[in-house]
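sorry for the late reply, my laptop died twice this morning and i had to redo everyting from scratch. anyway the thing you sent over, i finally got around to it. pasting the sequence first so we're on the same page, its 428 residues, then the predicted structure underneath. double check i copied it right bc i was rushing
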Amino acid sequence: MKMLREGTYLAFFSGLSLVIALIVCAPSVYAIDLEEMQAMALSNRQVIRQYMTFLEQSEEDIVLARGGFYPSVDIGYITNTLDESRITENKENSLAAGQISWNIFAGFRDKYNLLSAKKQKEVEQYKLQAVTQDVQLNVALAYLSVSERRANRRVAESQFQTLEKAYQDGESRFQVGLIGKNDLLRFRVDYDNADITLKAADAGLQKSVNDLSRQVGSEIKLEDLDFAEFKQLPPPIDKGEYMRKMLVDRSEIKALESLITVTEARSEAELSDYYPKVEVVASGSSYDDDYINGQGSLDDHELRAQLNMSMNLFQGFTTEASVARAKLETRSVRYELAELKNDLTTELDNLYIDLKVSLENVVVAKRAIEQAEENLRITQLKYDEGLERESDYLDAIFNLSRSQYNQVAVLRTAFQNNFRLIRMVDGF
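ok and here's the structure:
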């Protein structure tokens, strides 16, 4: 009992500590990271359920294919009314019959149909995996877009505030006659343009959040995001390792490889028409001279066992055409697979180049911002002393903004290439 009480108290204080931590750290606790949003998307998006349905259909196709290995059982009941009775058949009669038939050889059609169905299920599994990866990539790219629009808005806001201050200072200078009306109007035009840019950035940020919500399949708010994934640059990659992994693990490649097996099995199944078919049949029937079997005066029973063997010798060249068509389908899928591998290899090469260049550009963009900030500082000091023109001061402001926008762009490119490279190897 003492141990139970100690455990109860421990659980109570642990729970209390957790509640306190939740209250103190509420903003960070409720932040949603990329993995959580991707998991939400996989749970919410209808396209995932659509491909899961395709997979379920393929499982039912396996059941259908297995049906060829089982016997077939049929029963029937027939009533007849003739215009007059005959020697062999009464005017009113009925026939109850039952039959069990089992195809014991059909030229291996059942075997290859089952193999084809199983491999088709693999194809659907790989398609589902590919869609899952695409959904997660789209969430990551939408999340990156929000981060970019948020950074652009900050740049626009900084530029707006700087130009607002510059315009207000210009008004003061105009009042005391230090600058002319034309110089003040130049400040005003740039200030208004910055206002328009800021409003556009606000709208773009909100739209990007809406796009992210669409990709996740649930409402996402800007305050729910902490953008921790973008605080560190993506690391360089081993191109050779990525290439090897892509050719082995990429779901679309696996899907086509399985589809080749499907088409080959279908081709073998079509060849079955060249083989004989053997079927065992056991049947029984009961004839009665009354509509209700067993109620008449004549009751005739028959049990029969049959071994049926048949072989098609000619059906208008359809067998040859079916076999040829199945083989051509296999050839077509092989061509598609080769093209896919070439496309993916080229895409990976290009993404590797883009990632490498974008990581180098991040360093250049950072240095450009430092230089632009120093240039603005010096220009503003000279402008305050009357040693620089208004146009030079405005140019320095815009140079800093341009450098900041460039940094946002190169960071977006780096993370975008990294996300796409992860998708290339089904890495989400």
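The first helix runs from residue 2 to 24.
thats about all i looked at so far, will dig more tmrw
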